[in-house]
Amino acid sequence: MASTTPLDIPPAPPETRSRPKSTGRAGDKIFLGLSRGSGILLLVVMASIAVFLSYRAYLAISENEGDFLTTLDWNPAGDPPVFGIAVLLFGTVVSSIIAMVIAVPIAVGIALFISHYAPRKLAAPLAYVIDLLAAVPSIVYGIWGALVLVPYLEGLNLWLDQFFGWTYIFEKTEIGVPRSLFTVGILLAIMILPIVTSVSREVFLQVPKMNEEAALALGATRWEVIRLSVLPFGRSGIISASMLGLGRALGETMAVATVLSPSFLISLHVLNHGGGTFAQNIAAKFGEADEFGRDALIASGLVLFILTLLVNGAARLIIARRKEYSGANA
Amino acid sequence: MTHATTTDIQDDRPRTSPEPRKAGLSSRSLPRWSPLGFAVVAIALGVGISLAAGWHSRVQWGLISALLFMAISYVTTTVVENQRQAKDRLATSIVWVCFLVAVVPLASLLWTTVSRGVERLDGYFLTHSMAGVLGPEHSGGVYHALIGTLEQVGIATVISAPLGLLTAVYLVEYGKGSLARAVTFFVDVMTGIPSIVAGLFILSIMLIAELEPSGLMGALALTILMIPVVVRSTEEMLKLVPNELREASLALGIPKWRTILKVVLPTAIGGITTGVMLAIARIAGETAPIMLLVFGSQLINTNPFEGAQSSLPFYIYEQYKVGEVASYDRAWAAALVLIAFVMILNLVARGIARWKAPKTGR
Q1: Which one of B13, B49, B94, B208 counts the least CB within 10 Å of its CB?
Q2: DSSP string over B65-121
Q3: Alpha-carbon span A77 to A291, nearest angstrom
Q4: How confident is the prediction along chain B (362 residues), in pLDDT tens digits per residue?
């Protein structure tokens, strides 16, 4: 992106070409060195994150007696040490999917509300409040989820079980507080709403006014304007906003750790207790872990790292592609 | 409203077409207040049905009313106007419902934190630590955690603000070619690193170098989370600085580094400050790295380079884990302190952004 902005094009070429390198401007060299150095340092940090995590993970996995990918247990302190990420991967993916299914449509709705439906005077403060909500720390969502949301969701759980129990997914086979993957999904949905909303809203505001006005001039209703010009233009923006939200949901630690009552089981009964996520498992098992146990946790963290890298990388690629063909922000 | 005016015009003219209603440019339209009417009917019906069925959850009342509202307005509009208008109204109601549905939990979150938080929040709470306080006791405070948060966030800021600033300068003022592209890409990727992974990275260094947990280790993990945010926002701000300023300065024979330091950065300083403050607000609420690297402590430890410390978010988690009424109170009060801290930072930062916004010349 930086290389395509008009800003850095004009001064550079004549300077480097026409002038010999020894102009005596030491300041320039030092400054360039410093700024390039910090850029390189960032790359080094990224690389070392991957290297260090992989190294410690290798130490753990090479001692693991179980299969790292399929074992349904986490007992690195045992003899022999056995641990696997199957449950964590399952829990992380399922809770994130639930969160996305709930959050994305609602977030797009709110973004449309702010950009196209809300009264003008209400829209700006609303956008502001949404941005502020994105800054609420996750631990606050966590204790709110555990102390307020969980008791509140009991009714919804019973209702889902009663009417949708036949789907197997929503069958609740036990009694108790709903500290389940489903509740985690709902809480994650609430947490990522602000970020998905604010990114989608920005995209919706970039829709060329001409397109919307053309649709209006053809007699389209407001919904038709949105369907014909806003949503097609904003589609990739919505996708990338959702992916950013997904990235957050995947790596969320505290909110899951406070709400979920974990167990090492894979069950599609999402209303039941149990399951776990990568981040939650690290938070829960860290206190009791010895050095080998920590290495095992680092190994699971490495998988989470790769997962979020893939999701975020995909989101960035989609954003970058949109920027290329969109003339709105040129 | 265009419909109404065309109707008036149409009505004034002598009707020449054989079927006036269908052939006219206008069609029948519902009065402006009709959504309100639908709403009244829907709520009345919804409450009636709920009372009859014996539901007592207000959420159910709201849901049934919302569904009835959509159904009534869709059917009426289809009959009176046409299906396109009906779909439009349906979409409008869905968008409103989305908004209201989202407002409920978010408002509940803020309301609970504030109302539960003020119970315990006072001068005593802010100036005492948890030294010697047992879980169920109604005393103790957050002082040690405040100190921890301020120190850890302070160290993280001191490291990441200059680094992030320089990187952004490199990307905007010098950056060309593959290095700049790689840095841009990895800054984006770094933005998405979960905080717990940043914590694990520092932990793996600690395990290899055999370091002890301390505030500094937590601060280093926070730095990893903070740098990309600073780079991103600074980059955006530097791009807003008009090129004419740079060219004017360079034309006067001023070296590039002086141009950047004396012209570009001062022009963008408001936005840069905002970015740094928003980044601080983001990392101040991070719990996971602190849990892994700083370990938490009940005592006041003002030295971030040695020994366990606490921090506000970790304190909240700790108190939640204790599971007593008194500790929940402390957790909510600390949550209020944390939210207030983050919100004030946000508000001030956005205020600065508006006040010092660079003149873009547009």
Answers
A1: B13
A2: HHHHHHHHHHHHHHHHS-HHHHHHHHHHHHHHHHHHHHHHHHHHHHHHHHHHHHHH-
A3: 10
A4: 444 444 444 444 444 444 444 445 566 777 778 888 888 888 888 888 888 877 766 777 777 888 888 888 888 888 888 888 888 888 888 888 888 888 888 889 999 999 999 988 888 888 888 887 777 788 888 899 999 999 999 999 999 999 999 999 999 988 788 899 889 888 888 888 899 999 999 999 998 998 888 899 999 999 999 999 999 889 988 988 888 999 999 999 888 888 998 899 988 888 888 889 889 988 998 888 988 888 878 888 888 888 888 899 999 998 998 888 888 999 999 999 999 998 898 888 888 877 776 555 44
In angstroms, the Cα distances linking B221 to A266, A291, B195 are 32, 19, 8
Reading the block at residue B243, the tokens are 């090129």
Of A133, A85, A252, the closest CA to residue A185 belongs to A252
In angstroms, the CA B143 to CA B161 distance is 26
Contact B197 A291 (CB under 8 A): no
Determine whether the interchain pair A53/B204 forms a contact, defined as Cβ–Cβ distance below 8 Å.
Answer: yes
> Class of B143-355 per CATH?
mainly alpha
Query: By the 8 A CB rule, do B322 and B106 touch?
Result: no
Tell me how far CA of residue A326 lies from CA of A32, A237, A240, B204, B360, in angstroms: 33, 11, 15, 43, 21
Measure Cα distances from B46 to A27, A86, A154, B97 in Å.
Answer: 74, 46, 23, 15
Considering only residues 24 to 83 of chain B, which have any Cβ-Cβ distance to chain A shorter than 8 Å?
57, 59
Question: Nearest 10 degrees: CA dihedral of A97, A99, A102, A108?
Answer: -100
Is residue A181 within 8 Å of residue A98, measured between CB atoms? yes
Contact B95 A112 (CB under 8 A): yes
Partners of B207 on chain A (C-beta within 8 Å) are 56, 291, 294-295
Helices B34-53, B58-80: inter-axial angle, 10-degree rounding: 140
Q: Determine the residue of chain A that is closest to B313 in CA distance.
A: A139
Which chain B residues are closer than 8 Å to A2 by Cβ? 171-172, 175, 180, 184, 235
The answer to whether B304 and B152 are in contact (CB under 8 A) is yes
- According to DSSP, the residues that pair with A74 across neighbouring strands are A83
d(CA B67, CA B61): 10
Contact status, residue A185 vs residue A104, Cβ threshold 8 Å: no
Report the alpha-carbon distance of residue B98 to residue B240 in Å, rounded.
Answer: 35
Q: Which among A139, A224, A312 is the nearest to B316, CB-wise?
A: A139
Q: How far apart are CA A196 and CA A199, in angstroms?
A: 5
- Would the CB atoms of B285 and A138 count as touching at under 8 Å? yes
Contacts of A38 (CB under 8 A, 6+ apart): B162, B163, B164, B166, B167, B170
